[in-house]
Amino acid sequence: MGKRQFLTRMELPGERGIIYDRKGALLAGNSLGFNLYQSGPVSDPRGALARLGISPKPMGDKKAILLARGLSPESAEGLSGVKGIFMRPGSPRFYPLGDATRGLVGAVGHDGVGLSGAELLFDKWLSGESGYEIFLRTADGNPIAIPGVSGKLAESGHDIYLTIDADLEDFAFSAIKATVEDTRAKKGFVLVLDPSTGEVLAIAQYPPSERIYALTDPYEPGSTLKPLIMAKALELGLINLSDSVPIGQEKLRVGKHFIGDVERFPGGLSWRDALIHSSNRAMAYLGLKLGPKNIYEVLRRFGLLSPTGICLPGEWAPKSEKPSRWSMIRTANSGMGQGVMVTGIGMAMAFCAIANRGELLAPRIIKRMALGGEVKEFPERIVVRRAVSPEICDTIRELMIGVVEEGTGRKAKIEGISIAGKTGTAQKPDPVSGGYSESRVIASFVGFFPALSPRYLIYVVVDEPETAHYGGDVAAPCFRKIALFLINRDYGLLAMEGS
């Protein structure tokens, strides 16, 4: 009876594992702080606990209840004067890159459980094993250590190494932040990947959010889809790039709808020009020529009709839809990148397939894990399927080089290095009219370099820019800024191009 009344078994949480980038730079670590325990009825007249989002619990037969882990010294200091609680040393989580990794790395709650991002996904491995300690409980509920009484030491969680490059992540965040603010856009994101392995090197977004826009927010890609549509037409032998597009000078009529171009082509245009200068009329015509089944098949093969399976929470799953139900205007729109819903990570992986000559890869976010004294390495690359032949990819790459050298992507051009890219300006659906908005667009640019032996793929997407409209004006300069950062840092890229 004396033991039950005076001895307290108190849980000692294990320290959470560390999250590092690919080179060992800190992304999420532990600092000095406090764990908060309840030892009896709580008296909190000033509501200090409520302000921290912490609620007292019914005691029952327990003599000590863990209320919160890892309180900062500032939070702990604000609890002075609250009766029925006590504190012991703990480890608050901290994130050196702050908002730059909020969605990617995530956060941990007061209970020590991951709430979002990598903290949620890898919570099972990051969480340590709790131990316990036996204390003498005083009349007012406070614990006193008893020398020689046995307990169990807590064990730390496993350390995780992500594929992320911390320096690149930080720079990409500043670049997309500047782009969103300068264009007064709603939001934007940047993905940087190694197209040969599928490793995600950066996921940056602005405004900061626990939601990862590139996974959770589907959108219509617009003209960035055109290279994939043309790849299918070339595969089937439906077109020759040097041939003229047989559509004349007028707007393309599809039923009661009319499709026009931003640029005029008074001398006509070839199929090569159609992609380099992003002709909506030509690609809509090509969409009709391919038909729904072929468009559906190329979307499937490039992975755009299913989740990528990236190891991060919240990825949007496309709805299953039979192409036999597509109308003529839906088919035409699909040829120019409208009427098709995608995610950022899905589009990035599709273009990694073009860059690596045809292999659709699974995106990789975890590089290795430290399991006690052992290190578990994860597969370097995971091939989902072959999306298209190497020869078709080589042709599409040359067309994308033309986009940057002479077409709509000239603002992504960097002297001395060959870049393959494609712009996109997708009108957003108008829920009122049922058609497409004239002013609200998704502006984007996807590109990889060095074009002949790609080391980096960068995909920039900006939602509803106001001061500029087109992907070549909004997203291409952001791509160029990030590409220059990588080239200056990894000067060997220029040597690879023979510059």
Give the key terms.
499 residues; alpha+beta; 17 helices; single chain; 5-stranded antiparallel β-sheet; 21 strands
Write structural notes for this entry.
By secondary structure, the chain is an alpha+beta fold. Helices cover 30% and strands 25% of the residues. The chain has helices spanning 2-6, 48-51, 73-77, 102-105, 117-121, 123-126, 166-183, 213-216, 226-236, 271-276, 280-290, 292-301, 328-335, 344-355, 390-406, 471-489, 492-496, and strands spanning 7-12, 19-20, 26-30, 33-43, 65-71, 83-90, 93-94, 131-137, 143-145, 159-162, 187-194, 199-206, 252-254, 257-259, 359-361, 366-371, 374-377, 383-386, 420-429, 436-449, 456-463. The strands form 6 sheets. The protein has a 6-stranded mixed sheet, with no helix packed on it. A 5-stranded antiparallel sheet has the order 12-11-21-20-19, with helices on both faces. β16 (366-371) and β17 (374-377) form a beta hairpin. It is elongated.
Summarize the model shown:
The chain is an alpha+beta fold. 30% of the residues lie in helices and 25% in strands.
Write the layout of secondary structure elements.
Layout: H1 2-6, E1 7-12, E2 19-20, E3 26-30, E4 33-43, H2 48-51, E5 65-71, H3 73-77, E6 83-90, E7 93-94, H4 102-105, H5 117-121, H6 123-126, E8 131-137, E9 143-145, E10 159-162, H7 166-183, E11 187-194, E12 199-206, H8 213-216, H9 226-236, E13 252-254, E14 257-259, H10 271-276, H11 280-290, H12 292-301, H13 328-335, H14 344-355, E15 359-361, E16 366-371, E17 374-377, E18 383-386, H15 390-406, E19 420-429, E20 436-449, E21 456-463, H16 471-489, H17 492-496
Parallel strand pairs: 2-10
Antiparallel strand pairs: 1-8, 2-3, 3-7, 4-5, 4-6, 8-9, 10-16, 11-12, 11-21, 13-14, 15-18, 16-17, 19-20, 20-21
